[in-house]
Specification:
By secondary structure, this protein is an alpha/beta fold. Helices cover 52% and strands 10% of the residues. Helix 9 packs parallel to helix 10 (247-268) and helix 12 (321-337) runs antiparallel to helix 13. The model has no long low-confidence stretch (mean pLDDT 93). Bound molecules: phosphoenolpyruvate (PEP) and manganese (II) ion.
Length: 366
Amino acid sequence: MMKLNLIKQDWINKFNKPLIISGPCSAESKDQVLEIAKKLKKINNIKIFRAGIWKPRTRPNSFEGIGEIGLKWLKEVKKETGLLIATEIANATHVKLAIKHEVDILWIGARSTVNPFTVQEIAEALKDTNKIILVKNPINPDIELWIGALERLLNQGITKLGIIHRGFSTYKSLIYRNPPNWDLALKFKKLFPNIPILCDPSHICGNKERLLEVMIQARNFNYDGFIIETHCNPDDAFSDSQQQIQPSILGDYIKKLNNHSLRLKETQDKDKEKSQFELDQVRNLIKELDHNIIYLLSKRVNYSEQIALIKKNSNLVILQQKRWKTLIEEYKKMGTQFGLATKFLEELFKVIHKESRKIQKKIINL
Ligand code: PEP
Ligand code: MN
């Protein structure tokens, strides 16, 4: 049996770098897909058109995709523009229909990668296909699940593979809809440098504002390309209207990205600037952790407020010294196991605890 880290992925070399897949979140009408595709066709580097035909929506009673008729429209896009066509498949029937309508590139969505039964069903339906199959990360940051999905495809003789980093679900997101986990994606890249990796800034951001920033970050990490949502009238889109941009804006972003790449190439030749580049990469990873820290602190404040209400209602004192002492000892012990200095932990938790008492006092004295 062929191993994942041994298969050569020549398919990516047939495209210019960065490879760009673009089109609407969902196919809505024949005119809509054709209008977008014609505009995308004029942009350098865009050779693949995307559109969702079956949409995995979080809640029922929203637009769940146009279904098979949309595949006919995609075929029309291919015929009229020469663009290759790509869509998401989530079960064996989707696979059968997508193949029947000559879809060139199929991807497994984040909500499918998460389920081994679904991935197995898709892999068996795709058996021995020569088509390019892209696998989005599962919604939870589990690298084994992601690798497992690719192995299931490989076990069915499917060898033209690639992955898409589209960010990970959180209970409550601060600035991203699905915060990226560059660290995990880079781990994947290190384990399988042969597998092309694309970034999906649209589903990471969930809005238009940070798309370019995320694209530049992915470029700095040497991603092979992007899958990004475009729509001629984003505000009227049937799904994901907040994150879709007009094709002309994407054209502008690609130019900016190319200029960035040129500068990057120049700087990578100079030692000093190379260290600056490496520094920036690690800074990005730290920033991502800081975002998590801020989010966790906000949750902690929430609990402090809940505790204050309970104490107020039952006339309990704010500071329960004995409990605090036990806790801080436990945290210090745990921190030591992770290589953190005891003094640092003590000081950090003193500040956090002080803030918590302040918040509680305010509520109790209301
Ligand atoms: C999509 O690409 O439109 C989509 C549904 O994405 P994801 O699987 O990342 O949620
Ligand atoms: Mn979408």
